[in-house]
């Protein structure tokens, strides 16, 4: 993303071999930071566009008919956490309201919500499960379609339990105080 003179961010597509810009499109917003996540199946990317003082935007972009296309919509409370391994939806974690939300792609319609006081980390452990941690609570697994609780995660004594970050293939890492640990379910 690059800013324009009018303040809107641009999405620029580059040729992977030469680095030449192939096309640009305005995102219609001015973010203070962004994170891009690829879709495992398909030619799309999703982008979280942080808005600064709470809220922001979530966009889905693709290359179509020789030009970039990006659909951006407001996300006043959720931050893009992860894209479902099959690309049909994404998970948002809370910016302000503490809820996990599964959203349909491409329209972003909420499909499932889990109330709680969830941290900003979490995502799809695999196609069927989501992993997330409450700020002062446990790490738990939920179904990926309805966010129904499956179980809480039990770590051994002395384990790092902060910032669970899944890879979508059944494992996740945790990180705190310079220690990174990798996990999988039994």
Describe the fold and architecture.
- By secondary structure, the chain is mostly beta strands.
- It has a single domain (about 1-185), classed as YVTN repeat-like/Quinoprotein amine dehydrogenase (Methylamine Dehydrogenase, Chain H, 7 Propeller), CATH 2.130.10.10.
- Helices cover about 0% and strands about 55% of the residues.
- It contains no helices and 18 strands.
- The protein has strands at about 1-5, 10-15, 20-25, 35-40, 45-50, 55-65, 65-75, 80-85, 90-95, 100-105, 110-115, 120-125, 130-135, 140-145, 150, 165, 170-175, 180-185.
- The strands form 5 sheets. It has a 4-stranded antiparallel beta sheet, with no helix packed on it.
- It is globular and about 50 Å long.
The amount of beta strand, in percent, is: over 45%
Radius of gyration: 17 Å
Class based on secondary structure composition and strand pairing: mainly beta
State the domain count.
1
- Count of runs of 4 or more consecutive helical residues: 0
User: How many angstroms separate the termini?
Assistant: 40 Å
Please state the average pLDDT score. Answer: 87
Total strands: 18
Approximately how much helix is present in the residues? under 10%
- Strand sequence of the main sheet, in spatial order? 4-5-6-7
* Highest-level CATH class: Mainly Beta
What's the architecture, going by CATH?
7 Propeller
What is the H/E order?
EEEEEEEEEEEEEEEEEE
Shape: globular
Low-confidence stretches: none
Largest sheet: 4 strands, antiparallel
CATH topology: Methylamine Dehydrogenase, Chain H
CATH superfamily: YVTN repeat-like/Quinoprotein amine dehydrogenase
């Amino acid at each position: 993303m690059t800013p324009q003179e009018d303040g809107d961010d641009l999405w620029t597509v580059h040729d992977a071999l030469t680095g030449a810009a192939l096309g640009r499109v305005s995102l219609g917003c001015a973010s203070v930071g962004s994170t891009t996540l690829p879709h495992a199946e398909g030619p799309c990317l999703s982008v979280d566009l942080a808005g600064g003082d709470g809220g922001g935007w979530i966009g889905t972009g693709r290359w179509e008919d020789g030009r970039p296309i990006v659909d951006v919509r407001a996300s006043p409370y959720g931050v893009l956490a992860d894209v479902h391994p099959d690309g049909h939806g994404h998970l948002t974690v809370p910016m302000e309201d503490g809820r996990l939300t599964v959203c349909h792609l491409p329209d972003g319609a909420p499909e499932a919500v889990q109330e709680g006081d969830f941290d900003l980390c979490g995502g799809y452990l695999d196609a069927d499960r989501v992993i997330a941690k409450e700020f002062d609570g446990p790490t738990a697994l939920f179904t990926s379609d309805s966010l129904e609780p499956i179980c809480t995660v039990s770590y051994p004594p002395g384990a790092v339990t902060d910032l669970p970050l899944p890879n979508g293939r059944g494992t996740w890492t945790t990180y705190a105080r310079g220690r990174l640990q990798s996990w999988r379910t039994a």
